[in-house]
Fold this sequence. Notes:
By secondary structure, the protein is an alpha/beta fold. 44% of the residues lie in helices and 14% in strands. Residues 1-5 and 20-42 have low confidence and may be disordered. It holds the Pfam family Glyco_transf_29. It comes from Branchiostoma belcheri (Amphioxus).
Amino acid sequence: MVWIKNKNVASAFHLLILATATVLLLQYAYTYRQHNILYYHISNFKGKMVDTVQDHFNMTRIHQLQNITRQFFYPKKDIIDFKDHEIFLEKCNPETFTLLNSTKETCNVTHTHVKQYKNCALVGNGGILLNSSCGAEIDAHDFVIRNNLAPTAEYSKDVGTKTSLTTINFAVLWRVTNTLKRKRKDNVELQSLLSRLSETPGMVFVYPLGIIGLENLKAIDIVMKDKGIPIVLAFSHRSIMTDKRLLYRKLADTYWNLPSTGVNTFALASTFCDKISMYGYYPMSTYHNQNVPYHYYGDPGYYGPAHKMEEEFAMFQDFHSQGIIRQVIGKCDSD
């Protein structure tokens, strides 16, 4: 211990220690309060969400839908753990998902990190999410599914930050691979990507468009291990976009030559989620006489003419009215 003989200096020193301790205590109290507020909001939304689930969803209709979608999608073949890619290619036919030495026996060497979940949030990238205050409600779900690594941190109030699974298209897969190859630590795009991938440890990062992307996933896997980023890479035995016309004939009584990624992601999610709330799926350019941007994060984008977005939206509206899904459009209750 250091003894200070000058009483004035000693007194000033003690006051400095007291002031420092007070500041630290106030900072701790503020941080603790903010943490409790955040925890309260998420817990509060979870309680409200459970009440909404009980009031809205029709489990009989949901099971009827699952009986159809499970004929076309299955997590063990559409969200395959990347660790299984070598044995999968060695022993299985990617096209039929059968063992190579059999035309009937299902490929049984794959695993998936996806389980069965009671309630899921399926979050699209639509501009309808801007100023929605849906973030806490989204994050309160057991499992949150997003698309194409859309940014969340700067829009957290509206879209939340939790990501349990993200699906990516080939353009995003290519961009991620090329960005991760950059070596300079001061590269802004690289650091932004690494930060996004680190936001939710254990996030399943799935390329659902077949084995054509395996080489890219290998490159990503190497960097993720090197950086110690705990995400789970996954792939599909073949593209989830392939030949789903019969599925939507059964679901919507129509043929779509090219169903959108969003509607296929919904169909896949329905096989492992019992109750799905959908956010950010709104293809119209206006809502309540206000313009709605294509994406909530500023990318202008556009709806390709090949997709029947308004017809898909009508299907989701019908499912909502039947209690099969809960479609959230506009503002969420932020109390």
